[in-house]
Design a protein that fits this description.
disordered N terminus; 2 strands; about 375 residues; mainly alpha
Length: about 375
C-alpha cells in the first residue's frame, strides 16, 4: 500500500477532511453529556472498554510496584543480600509492570486521551490499598478521604469526559500533525523546554518544579504518539492496514524517545526529592499536560458544553486532591514503622536499610 495516494495536495487534504468527518461521532444530547444510563452505555461501549483496560492496567501496575517493594524488603533481611535483579520475585513484579503498561497502551486506542490519562490516580490509590492489606502499612484517615475523593473524581471523569468516537487512521494523524494548532503548540513547547533545560544544565537549577515540568512537556508528546500508534494498530486490526504509512514509524520514534528522556528527568527528581512530593506533583503535571495535548492535537473537547467541561475539570481536581492526601507524609511514617515487623532482627539498622531499598524500588516510570 502506498503511503499517500498519487494525487495533488488539494485532493489529499480533501480526502483527509472527509475521513475526519466520518471518524467523529458525537453522542446525543451533547458531547460528554449524560449519565450512566442504558442509552449512555450504548453510546460509550468502546470508551468503557478503554476505561476498563486503563483501570485494570493501573491496578496491575500497583500490584507490580508492591511486589518489587516486598522483594527489596526480603533481600534486605538476608545476611548477604543478592542484587535485586537476581530475584525471581522482583522480575515477577517487572513482568506485571509490562502487562499493566500494555493495558494502558491499548486503552489509548479505544478512548480519548482526556479520559485515559487522569485514570493514573487508580495506580496510586490501588497501591495504597495493597500496601495496607499485604505490606502492613498503616491506614490513615487521610488515606480513606483521599481514596474516596479519587473514586468520586474517577466517576465524574468517566461520565463527563468527551463523548467522541474517533477512528485513528494514518491520514487522520497526518492531518493533525501538520495542523496549525499543533505546530504552534510544538513551537511553544520546544521554546519552554529549551529555556528550562538551559536553567537546569547551565545554571544548575534543579528545583522539582523545573524537573517535573520537563517531564510533563515530554509526556504531552508521549500521549500524542502513544494514542497515534495504538490507534493505528487498532485500526489495522479492525479495518485497513495502517502500518505501511511513514507517519506510524515517525510517531513510534517520538514515543520511544520521549519516554526515555522522561525516565531520565523523573529519576533525577526522585533522587533529589522525596517520592511523597514527586508522585502527586508529577501526576498533576502529567495529567494537565496530557489533557492539553488531547485538546490541541485530537480536538477532544470540540463542541463540548461549558457545564460538561466544568464538571470534568472538577473531577480532575478531586482526583488530584485524592492522590495528594494518599501520598501526604507517608515517607515520614515509614521512618517510624517499616512495612514488615523487623523487631525480631538483632541488627536494628536493618529496618532503615530495608526502607531505603524499598524506596529505590519505587523509582519506576510509566505512561499514565
Amino acid at each position: 500500500m502506498a503511503a499517500l495516494a498519487p494525487a495533488g495536495p488539494g485532493d489529499a487534504a480533501s480526502a483527509a477532511l472527509d475521513e475526519l468527518s466520518l471518524n467523529f461521532t458525537y453522542g446525543a444530547p451533547g458531547v460528554g453529556n449524560g449519565s450512566l444510563s442504558g442509552a449512555w452505555y450504548r453510546r460509550n461501549q468502546i470508551h468503557l472498554f478503554g476505561v476498563l483496560l486503563a483501570i485494570l492496567g493501573n491496578l496491575v501496575i500497583s500490584i507490580s510496584l508492591n511486589i518489587q517493594k516486598y522483594s527489596h524488603l526480603q533481600l534486605a533481611q538476608q545476611e548477604h543480600p543478592r542484587p535485586y535483579f537476581k530475584s525471581v520475585l522482583w522480575w515477577s513484579g517487572v513482568l506485571l509492570m509490562a502487562v499493566g503498561e500494555t493495558g494502558n497502551f491499548a486503552a489509548y486506542g479505544f478512548a480519548p486521551i482526556t479520559l485515559i490519562a487522569p485514570l493514573g490516580c487508580v495506580s496510586v490509590t490501588g497501591s495504597a490499598i495493597i500496601s495496607v492489606t499485604f505490606l502492613k502499612d498503616n491506614l490513615r484517615a487521610s488515606d480513606l478521604l483521599g481514596m474516596t475523593l479519587a473514586f468520586a473524581g474517577t466517576y465524574l471523569l468517566v461520565n463527563f469526559a468527551p463523548n467522541i468516537t474517533q477512528a485513528i487512521s494514518a491520514r487522520t494523524v497526518q492531518y493533525y500533525f501538520v495542523g496549525w494548532q499543533f505546530l504552534i503548540y510544538v513551537i511553544l513547547e520546544i521554546l519552554i523546554f529549551c529555556i528550562l533545560l538551559y536553567f537546569y544544565k547551565r545554571k544548575g537549577m534543579k528545583h522539582m518544579v523545573i524537573l517535573l515540568t520537563l517531564v510533563a512537556l515530554l509526556a504531552s508528546l508521549t500521549v500524542i504518539s502513544v494514542k497515534a500508534v495504538s490507534g493505528m494498530i487498532t485500526f489495522s486490526m479492525t479495518d485497513k492496514m495502517q502500518l505501511t504509512y511513514p507517519i506510524f514509524y515517525i510517531m513510534f520514534i517520538i514515543m520511544i524517545a520521549s519516554c526515555v528522556f522522561q525516565v531520565k528527568f523523573l529519576n533525577q527528581a526522585t533522587k533529589l526529592y522525596n517520592t511523597t512530593r514527586v508522585v502527586p506533583v508529577n501526576h498533576i503535571f502529567f495529567t494537565i499536560s496530557a489533557i492539553i495535548a488531547g485538546i490541541i492535537f485530537y480536538q477532544e473537547f470540540l463542541g463540548a458544553a461549558f457545564l460538561t467541561v466544568f464538571i470534568y475539570l472538577f473531577g480532575c481536581f478531586l482526583s488530584f486532591l485524592g492522590v495528594f492526601l494518599v501520598t501526604r507524609n507517608r515517607e515520614k511514617e515509614h521512618l517510624q514503622q517499616s512495612y514488615i515487623d523487623f523487631g525480631n532482627i538483632p541488627d536494628t539498622t536493618l529496618g532503615r536499610k530495608a526502607w531505603r531499598e524499598t524506596n529505590v524500588g519505587q523509582n519506576t516510570t510509566r505512561f499514565k
